[in-house]
Amino acid sequence: MSQINLGQSPPGQQGKSRSKLPLILIFVLSLAPVLAAVLVYFNPSLRPASSVAYGMLIDPQRPVPAPASLALTTIDGQPFDLTTLNGKWVLATADSGDCSDDCAKKLFIWRNAHASQGKEVERLKRIWFITDDAPVPQKVLDAYKGTIMVRVKPEQLAAFLYPQDGKNPVNKGLNNFLWMIDPLGNLFIQYPEDADPSKIRDELRKLLSNSRIG
Question: What superfamily does domain 56-210 belong to in CATH?
Answer without folding.
Answer: Glutaredoxin (3.40.30.10)
